[in-house]
Amino acid sequence: METRATRIGLWAWGALVFAFLWIPLAIMAVYAFNSSNIQSWPIPGFTTKWFSQAWHDEEVRTALWLSLRAGLLATAVALVLGSLAAFGLARTRFFGRDSVSFLFVLPIALPGIITGLALNSFFVIWGVSFSLWTIVIGHATFCVVVVYNNVLARLRRTSGSFFEASADLGANGFQTFRLVTLPTVGTALVAGALLAFALSWDEIVVTYFTAGAENTLPLLLFGFIRQGQNLPIVNVIALVVIVVSAIPVWVAQRLTSESRGPRG
Amino acid sequence: MTFGQISAPVAAFVFVYVAAVVVLLIQGFWTTDSFTGKVVHTWNLDNYRAIADAPYPRIIFRTIGMAAAVTVTCMVLAFPYAYFMVRVAGPRLRVVLLVATVLPLWVSYLVRVYSWRLILNPDGALNWALNLVGLPDLNIAYTNWAMWIVFTYIWFPFMVLPVYAALERIPQSYLEASADLGGRGPTTLRRVILPLAVPGLAAGSIFTFSLTLGDYIAPSLVGGPGSSLIGTVVFENLGLANNAPFAAAFATVPLAIMAFYLLLMKRLGAFESL
To answer: How many CB atoms neighbour CB B28 within 10 A?
Structure first.
């Protein structure tokens, strides 16, 4: 029903917005190979030397290691708490159920600065010194939601009769869990874990308030950018951060869309 | 069994997250000793009174203005884009565009802000492109204009998704009915499609508005000297000025604005579209 001119206009608009979304990331990727250490466009030539320089930088390595540990630990905490919460809420109705589910969404509903500042004040008041563990707690607050949402969505699409049938056939709780529950929610758990890791890996707003003297990779980047230091290395890390967070998201996407087929 | 399952995560959230938010709210009533820099637990309203002192009201209004400008820009960009995805693009292209729109949300927010710093630099890609078509340089790096572009860029996907969902739900028959009754394209757009898209636009605006209110990264990376936002004040008081109680008190400002904004959006039906 749109006129031809409208349709052409809409195609053009779609292309423009798409370009707006992706050109900055493409430019970012090109800068990682900039042969000059002056950040001007177009870059004078290509090199991969900054990659090896970043890899051998002690500060970068320490930050990378901290980010990986924080991401893995926060993901582990999120897996346990998020799946417990999803199992607890999926097939039951009880008083206050809505408030409980609201509780888990709160960390992503409130601006990150509120979460960060709140946790910061909390740790200071109890005399908890900032460390890897305070970062993990900060990340876990918003990672739990991701696992929770994924597992809950899967459980809602699964009939409760599967679990009842297993019990009727004489399986104990552990057997049902291993033979029925785990295969059902397995991919949802993996997808949730991958997304949780992707969130934790490049988080900065909350991390700034819950990290101590040690830098995670995004904190190191933030510091470098603000001081205008080591910009070639910044470009390389930025590209690596993009790729490392895009891969888990892509895999997670595949896992959840695949299981929407007959098996799910 | 179920109670046991749910109690662990609930306890973790209540004793850490909720407790932390409560501490934040209480902390605003305390003070910092100006000699020792330690937080003193004497109750008073000084921090809340100080919010009314210069330059804070200006910063609050600047932040609200920026949040509103970003929200409107995202709406203007997102509506035709979502319309294109729903009604013009084929099913395959639609999926590609949806993924292409959502994926940047998962790409480091810091990196996306930084990419604009490179582009807007005086010798960056923007001026290169402008010179290419014979236009003069545009030096907007480290200004409020830069912040406006960057905020629009990073929050845009949050606007597209609910608008897309709202448009997708409009039955074809409504549009046919409108056409049968003599409604031409613009009339159908104005009287059928736009009103039905309002809840989606309102839902998206909650994200774009709230996220801008609490941000401190973009102002510090792409803003200039006159670009302090609410987030900047909180950030600087906690870090540089070492005045956590004032930071805590000031953090209630975006909370209050958001509470008011949510009430407003609720009336537009935003919550049915989240």
So the answer is: 21
User: Distance of alpha carbon A202 from its chain centroid, rounded?
Assistant: 7
Q: Looking at chain B from residue 40 to 69, which residues have their Cβ under 8 Å from any Cβ of chain A? A: none
Q: Do A112 and B235 touch (CB under 8 A)?
A: no
**Could you say which residues from 119 to 148 on chain B have a Cβ atom under 8 Å away from some Cβ of chain A?**
119, 121, 123-125, 128
**CB nearest A117 (choices: B128, B221, B234):** B234
Residue type, A186: G
N-to-C CA span, chain A: 38
> What is the pLDDT of chain A when averaged over all its residues?
87
The pair of three-digit structure tokens given for residue A184, joined into one six-digit string: 């059902």
Give me the DSSP letters along B167-220.
HHTS-HHHHHHHHHTT--HHHHIIIIIHHHHHHHHHHHHHHHHHHHHT--HHHH
Which segments of chain B belong to CATH 1.10.3720.10? Answer: 53-272
* Class in CATH terms, B53-272: mainly alpha
* C-beta of residue B31 within 8 angstroms of C-beta of residue B42: yes
Take residue B147 and report the two structure tokens written for it.
């912040």
* Cβ-Cβ contacts under 8 Å, B235 against chain A: 113, 208
Tens digit of each residue's pLDDT (9 = 90 or more) over A124-146:
888 899 999 999 999 999 899 88
| Rounded distance between C-alpha atoms, residue A244 and residue A134, angstroms | 23
The alpha carbon of B50 is separated from its chain's Cα centroid by a whole number of angstroms, namely 26
Highest mean pLDDT: which range of A70-79, A245-254, B36-45:
A70-79
CB B113 within 8 Å of CB B151: no
What are the pLDDT digits (tens) for B131-166?
999 999 998 989 999 999 999 999 999 999 999 999
Phi, psi of A47 (to 5 degrees): -155, 155
Which of B22, B79, B111 to mutate against chain A (most A CBs within 10 Å)?
A: B111
B215 touching A, CB under 8 A? yes
Distance (Å, rounded) from C-alpha B60 to C-alpha B82?
32
Q: Tens digits of per-residue pLDDT, B118-137?
A: 999 998 999 999 999 999 99
H/E element, A195 = helix A182-201
Q: Which residue has the tokens 């540990």?
A: A69
pLDDT at A61 over 50: yes
CB contact under 8 A, A111 and B119: no
